[in-house]
Specification:
By secondary structure, this protein is mainly α. It has eight helices and three strands; from the N terminus they run ααββααβαααα. The radius of gyration is 18 Å and the shape is elongated.
Length: 130
């Protein structure tokens, strides 16, 4: 097992660019069924908290991943009104379920939460050593 590095003040100061939280982070996701990739943008804290809150509310839980996906997919632009019109969307977020399957929506949403550090970003050192 490799030794786990302890983060120090010297590291934080010396390599500021490496450790500083970056805001405008994007990532490409491949959607197998579509045989194409999409681009998502790292969600802001408020969007993550809204999505988590929705997922815990029995009346909104089924829309939490749709809401996150709608707000983080930047390419293609799901907010484009012509796209929404072409697919006959009543509500803007309807486009998500017209393009992506439920499992794809959940995966996209989860990828956004991971980009913001809400999923599996910290682990106990003692767990890693065992």
């Amino acid at each position: 097992m490799t030794e786990i590095k302890k983060l120090t003040l010297t590291d934080l100061i010396k390599e500021k660019e490496k450790y500083q939280v970056k805001k405008d982070v994007t990532e490409e996701l491949y959607i197998q069924r579509l045989d194409a990739s999409i681009t998502i943008r790292k969600p802001e804290r408020s969007l993550c908290l809204d999505t988590i809150s929705m997922s815990r509310d029995k009346d909104q839980a089924d829309q939490a991943d749709v809401y996150m996906t709608y707000n983080i997919v930047v390419e293609p632009d799901l907010k484009d009104t012509e796209l929404q019109k072409a697919y006959g969307c009543v509500e803007p977020t309807d486009i998500v379920e017209k393009i992506f399957d439920p499992g794809e929506i959940a995966s996209i949403s989860q990828a956004g939460l991971e980009l913001s550090g809400y999923i599996s970003s910290a682990k106990r050192v003692k767990d890693l050593k065992n």
